[in-house]
Amino acid sequence: MYSISKSSIQAEPKITMKPFESKLAEATAPPNAQILGVITTVVNAKGTVLYHQRSGSQSLFPSSPPIDANSAFFLGSAGKFITHIAALQLVERGLLTFDEPVSKYLFEPSRHRKRKSLSVTS
């Protein structure tokens, strides 16, 4: 789970995206929301939050409160996707190969190879 504290969000955003925000509000508006809820954050290399917007509800229940800075979401298998992207970027940079044993990088002994680990089966 990931959350952004109110203290890390600048009072005056440096980026204005009114057309995007209008579409987002429309897509998350009850009762016919196309998207349950969205939190969008843009952070620069120094860690400064340049833009932060949230829209929608915290759950499918009609009485659900709107998304706020402390909302938490279940990401399910999204971690696999993020890990795959990171691993493929390392392969692209020549820092990792598909056929090395995973145990070279993990503390737990394993005979798996990265090629097998990067195949999504669930």
Overall description:
The longest helix is centred in the last third of the chain and has 15 residues, at about 80-90. Helices cover about 25% and strands about 10% of the residues. A two-stranded antiparallel sheet has the order 1-2. The protein starts with 17 loop residues before the first helix and ends in a 5-residue tail after the last helix. With about 120 residues, it is an alpha+beta fold. It holds the Pfam family Beta-lactamase. It comes from Hyaloscypha bicolor E.
In total, the number of domains comes to 2
Helix/strand-derived category reads: alpha+beta
Series of secondary-structure elements, N-terminal to C-terminal: HEEHH
In whole angstroms, the N-to-C terminal distance is 20 Å
The helix content, as a percent range, equals 10-25%
Protein name: Beta-lactamase-related domain-containing protein
Pfam family, one: Beta-lactamase
Organism: Hyaloscypha bicolor E
Present the secondary structure layout.
Elements: H1 18-28, E1 37-43, E2 49-56, H2 78-92, H3 114-117
Antiparallel strand pairs: 1-2
Domain Beta-lactamase-related: 33-112
InterPro entries: Beta-lactam-related, Beta-lactam/transpept-like, Diverse_Enzym_Activities
Protein name: Beta-lactamase-related domain-containing protein
Task: Output the keywords.
alpha+beta; 2 domains; two-stranded antiparallel ribbon; Beta-lactam/transpept-like
In short:
The protein is an alpha+beta fold and 122 residues long. The protein has helices at residues 18-28, 78-92, 114-117; strands spanning 37-43, 49-56.
